[in-house]
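Quick start: read one record
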Amino acid sequence: MIHLSSKHLQVLQIIEASPGIKYSDIFEQAKASHGQHWVMTAIKTLLDKGLIYREGNKKHYQFYWTDVPYQVSEEVKHCHRMPDLLIQNALSELTDEQKYYIRHHRKRMTRSQLAKKLGISKLALTLYLDNIPNQIIERGK
């Protein structure tokens, strides 16, 4: 039996009630409580779990329920992510001076210019900017 969160149940019930429904119709029915990105993610999750399948070409998919039994549970177990060593290494390579320079020049220079000036890769700079909360960056001004 496949475990399903109550949030994904809404999308599955829409598909169960209307076999052959198109994505745009699913979105119209579910948009009151969820955004488009969430609906797309829910459909992908249901496809990955084998609860629904789709037919047709890429622009005109129709979705169907697979009649696979499922159980709704509030606690759906998710995989715990291992720490990303690439991110940890990139963040630990920056010196305090480089972090200070980034905080004070990030709005005046492009990421490519900043990375070149600091002698680091653009990836390391992007990882630093994306993984440090904005309040920490803003506080450094």
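Confidence is low (pLDDT under 50) at residues 135-141.
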